[in-house]
Write a structure and sequence with these properties.
The structure is a homodimer.
Chain A: H1 25-37, H2 41-51, E1 56-57, H3 58-64, H4 69-81, E2 85-91, E3 94-99, H5 101-110
Chain A binds a DNA duplex through helix 3 and helix 4.
Chain lengths: 130, 130
DNA sequence: CGTTTGCATCGACATTTATCAATGTATCAG
DNA sequence: CTGATACATTGATAAATGTCGATGCAAACG
């Protein structure tokens, strides 16, 4: 057993979909902390970009996003400390980040989303009937 | 055709699950705005309570939450303006709020959660295998 | 009518947050 | 070793946010 024990600190129960059971305060706090990591458009864009690739170089973000390099670094830190992303690799002076799919899944599950079969996909043909 | 045309302003595509397509900036902003509504423990607790009942009186929140009445009213306003909750009924001086399930589903879907068949349930036996 | 009750709004305040310039720190190229 | 590059950290600042007391307002009660 290599040190690969997956730690899942918080929240494995739905909270916000109809029928959800009452939440203990600390669970609500943990959820709020993760939602806060996604409460900024730049960070949503970062997560979205990471969702479309295996890993992305920080330099990619500093190029695309119209923000200073420290600001980008700040947003990456917030997402990292929320457990939504992690450093996947360092090559020379480059740093690559990747998504932590389990963390995103937990949030989706908390919101009542059924666990996706493969954790992948969910294409756009669910363009909603309304 | 009664006035029941459902308006779904924003975001009907996944954003943050592996394989998600690139997001237009305004979509990322709309998502961030809704996540921000859930970025506070009190508001998560409110949504959670609303998820467990058809409707809940404001007086119920002011009693349970350890906060002043104006503060509770503030949080309800934030959630309401985010489209996550709405006033369901007014009886005398009482005001009742209810969840807007479609709004929560949208967020779950954006995070890669498969659309729940009935919009209900998602029990706790998905206590994760880890 | 006046009073009470439940909730919203306003004004004030302390804390947090997003942002940038400046600086620190590895890593690579010469 | 020297310089350059990529990223992180620090410090500062303006804006946003959570909180509360005071006030406003509409509905019910007497």
């Amino acid at each position: 057993m290599s040190m690969q024990t997956k730690r899942l600190k918080v929240l494995e129960q739905p909270c916000c979909a109809p029928g959800a059971p009452p939440l203990r305060p600390e669970i609500a706090e943990g959820l709020a902390r993760r939602f806060k990591a996604l409460s900024d458009p730049t960070r949503v864009a970062i997560v979205n970009r990471l969702a479309g690739a295996d890993e992305v170089c920080v330099c990619d973000f500093t190029l695309r996003l119209q923000l200073s390099q420290p600001t980008v670094s700040h947003h990456l830190r917030v997402l990292r400390e929320a457990g939504l992303i992690e450093v996947s690799r360092k090559r020379g002076t480059w740093v690559f980040y990747r998504l932590v799919p389990e963390a995103v899944e937990q949030l989706a599950f908390a919101l009542g989303g059924a666990p996706t079969p493969e954790g992948v996909l969910a294409t756009a043909e669910r363009t909603v009937a309304w």
